[in-house]
Every structure is written in C-alpha cells, then in structure tokens.
Automatic annotation (TrEMBL):
This is AAA family ATPase. Residues 45-60, 67-81 have a biased composition (Low complexity). Residues 122-252 form the ATPase AAA-3 domain. PANTHER family: MAGNESIUM-CHELATASE SUBUNIT CHLD, MOXR FAMILY PROTEIN.
Amino acid sequence: MTEPTVPTPEPLPTPQDAAPTTPAPVLPSVSAPTTPSAPVPTQPSTPAAHASAPVPSEAAPVPPTQPTSTTPAASESAPVPGRRARGPHDAFAAVRDEVAKAVVGQESAVTSLLIALLCRGHVLLEGVPGVAKTLLVRSLATALEVDTKRVQFTPDLMPADITGSLMYSVKSEEFSFKAGPVFTNLLLADEINRTPPKTQAALLEAMEERQVTVDGVGHKLPEPFMVIATQNPVEYSGTYELPEAQLDRFLLKVELPLPERDVELEVLARHSRGFDPRNLGGAGLKAVATISDLDAAREQVAAVQVAPEVLAYIVDIVRATRQSPSLAMGASPRGATALLSTARAWAWLSGRQFVTPDDVKALAPATLAHRVSLRSEAEIEGITAHSVLTTVLNSVPVPR
C-alpha cells in the first residue's frame, strides 16, 4: 500500500515534493505510519478514513443518527460531523489527514509535531515568513481539539506577559494570580529570537518543569503542553540568538522550506476556491482525536521495545559527535535520551513495536543538529551541522 500520506479529497502532492532540509530523513517514510495502522481488529482497510470515505458498516445511518454501536470507545460527546477514530493509530492518521486540509506540502513538519506530542517535547520551527507555520499549529490544535495561544515575541515583551502576574483586586482587597498565555496546550512562540534573553528564559521553567512560579508559588500548566517556537533564518537584525541551554530544551528542530511549484500551485488553487486560513471550520477542519487518544498513544509508545544493540548504537552516535573535529561541542546525554524517545515514537507511528537502526538514523538530524556547535573554522569552510551528522552516521557501525 504505497498511497500518499495525505489522502484528502483534492489531489495533493506526494511527500517527496516537500523534502525539507532538516527533516528530510523523515519524509521518505511519512506514508509508513498510515499503512501499518490498518490491522486494528475493528478497522476495515483504510486507517485514516473520514467522512468522504465512510466505513461500510456505517454507511446505513443518516448523518443525524450517531452510530454509537461502532464507536464504543468514544469518550467525548462533542457534536462534530463524521466519526472519531477508534484507536490511537487511527487517531493520529486522521489528525494528519485533517491538518492536510489546510496545510499543503508540509507532511514532514506535521509528523515532527506528532512525534513531539508523543514524547512530551517541544519543537523549534525555522522558516521564512509565509510557509504556514502559524496555520500548521492552529490546524493541529483543531484536529486534536485542544487549546492554543499565539504570542508575538518583541524586544519589549516582559516575562510576566507570558507567564502571568499578580493582580490586585479592589473589591476583594487582595492579590490574585492572573494566568498568562503560557497556560494553554499548544503555545506558539512566534519569532522567539526577537525578544531579549530574560524573556526567553521565562519559558525555560515552563518547558522543563511544566509549571511557572510567580511570587514563590508554583502553578501547574495544563496537559498536554507543548511549546512550538518559530524563528526567521534570514533576518537577524535586532534578534537575540537562542542560547545553547534553551536550544537543548527543544526536542526537535524542523526547517520548513519554500514549497515546490506543484505544491504552491495547489495552495493558490485552494485559495481561488475560497479557502480562508482564518476560518478553519469553513475549510472543513474538525476534531478527529481527543486528549484521551493522545494519552493512549503515549502509553503504547512507552511500550515500544529497544534492543541493547540499538541503545548502544544511539550512544555511539552521540559520542561520535563529541569527537568530530568540526564540532566545538557535541551532543549531551540529554541528546541521547531525546534521540531514543523520537526513534521510539517514529517506530510506533510506523506500526512497529520495536526500534530499528533506521528509525535512529531517520530522526538523528532533527534531534541532534541544534544540540551541536560548529567550530569557527568549519563555519568559514561552509560546513553545516547536518553535513557533520551525515558523516557521523556514515562512520558509526550499524548493528545487524
């Protein structure tokens, strides 16, 4: 079954058309997660079926009649059209299809966000303006039926503008905590490198501890919680480079490239048919998965087996980055644990209960590239972190 990953009603480009720089190793197998998720006992042939391709057993009821007998595990009663996916694999395949109704040609970025959600991690998106970074996050929040907030980072943004602060009430004559925009499920930190380090650091506790402390009192963040930060790779005037300590907090760094010609043509075709990125409901996007689906998926990911040989392979890759003559700083043990987590999630999305060396190699660039630092002489010679990682992956023996 080699169908494209995004089986939307309109003809969409194949995943190969959108091979970005960072997640390129992920893209060739984007269709893999969809195919293995078919062998669910009660699922017919297509794992990501939605309203345009109804399941044969559900074809009889008319839309007003909810087929409750075919969705015994449904935990929500939200009045959305169509049916909800019945298993974690089906749910994540349906989320990918739903996001594709609004975002074209960014299948690798969608997969990376799903991996980060499964691993309870955060993502740094890098791309020029206008490549659907904000639309991608909003579409994902709609498909998962979770809350999302967007913060535009500016040089005058204060930490309290993100975390919240104490407000004095004249009526009660006491201070009370007013939560900031960080209290959400998906926080879009737009152009995070445009705000000073003091404000950037306000996110560190939230990203690592999943709480914020105001006036000595800790306030837990909702679950799930993920920071999706963006930065412009072209314009560096008036920006503050993220320190290594904060870059290390991001599970993945994903580069969003400019679209290929046929992808851009499909974008214009959708807009000519009336697509409005500010009205996702009008584009047909709806909730197809729930937080309970995400929790169930996380439990299954935690059960994915990793052989001792694969663990040793991950360690050898990380240690090889510390010995590379082109790098001033290699990946830390946190990078090794991050690579283990992302490889596990990718194996689960691919329909397997075990991790292979190919899973590790596929996720290594997006997981480790932002955790290493190039020597100045290597930068002068035009060497990049991705080229160094490619050399490392080719030099480390692959377990058989």
